[in-house]
Amino acid sequence: MTNSRGLAGIIVDETKISSTKNAHLIYAGYPIEEIAQASFEEVVFLLWHTRLPNKHELTAFRQNLVEQMVLPAETIRLLLYIAKEPQHPMSILRTTTSLLGTTNDVEHDEPPKILAKMLTAIAAIIRIRDNEPLLEADHHLGVVDNFLLMMTGKKPSQQLSRMFSTVMILHADHEFNASTFTARVAASTLTDYYSCLTAAVCALKGPLHGGANERVFEMLETIKQQQIDPIVYLQDQLHAKRKIMGFGHRIYKNGDPRAVILKKIAAELAQETDNQVYFQIQTQIADYMLEKFKLHPNVDYYTALIYHCLGLQKETFTMIFAACRTVGWLAHIMEQRQENVLIRPCSAYVGPTGRHYSKGAGEIDE
């Protein structure tokens, strides 16, 4: 058998949800550059049903999601305790996701309710960590507006809502990435939705996956606060053989199409929130990395600044990624369940052979 480290280039299954073939991202056949202009609810429906909803379906779907953006009382009570602990927010989300699978009649929870609960739980964790009261969803608003309201305490402008909707869509799915594949492996055992999502959150927590956006902003903060020349900072980091987060992608060798869209949003938000210095630093870094190493920014690079402009703490950035990617996770869990095939790959054993056991040979002689 051929050994491909990290399953690079290996096709392990088929999917109708999304594709990155030829370094071009599509959602159920729609180019990301086009579908990013849709509403968030339209894209959720698309990824779950592989078709866009009609007007009546969209209205009902949006209403259903918003109405279910509420947490069980016992979940809130426990969240008020665990969310104040000093652990990283992704560790809190991991526990919270598992907790959501133990409250109320979860055996009958379906994807719309699960997504609504995940968004509400993530917003609640942020509010609790900021020592702010939890907010209820406004049934007159859409999902994105409510998510922003419940996180920040402010009803977003139409312009901000539109931009953040695009951000959420761009993060909604990405073929068989590490966390999605983890969710599918769990789903192949026919375990419940919440167990699959918990596994996915654990995978996303890693700095080589979702955790990169936090590291990107740490870099920007260091450069700004210490007034370091961005190029000198990069050279020092590279000399010390440290990875520059937010650059390069296994699939997109000539640039991540999501980053192109996100760059425009980051520039606009930076201007509106007086964070131009951060964007200028990002531009200098991106130009240097492209000129010296032919590396392009990936989805995490500009997202870090966007989340900062929303007033979020950098430790919570990956949770926002999780909120968006829950859409795709649920789509893949549903698809894997329909397939009903246990994922069980083989490995290439490279350990010792020819050993034989003799009873007592390894024991200490007393």
From TrEMBL:
GO terms for cellular component: cytosol. GO terms for molecular function: citrate synthase activity. Pathway: Carbohydrate metabolism; tricarboxylic acid cycle. It comes from Liquorilactobacillus ghanensis DSM 18630. Keywords: Transferase. GO terms for biological process: carbohydrate metabolic process; tricarboxylic acid cycle. Pfam families: Citrate_synt. Belongs to the citrate synthase family. InterPro entries: Citrate_synth-like_lrg_a-sub, Citrate_synth-like_sm_a-sub, Citrate_synthase, Citrate_synthase_AS, Citrate_synthase_bac-typ, Citrate_synthase_sf. It catalyses: oxaloacetate + acetyl-CoA + H2O = citrate + CoA + H(+). The active site is at H249, D300. This is Citrate synthase.
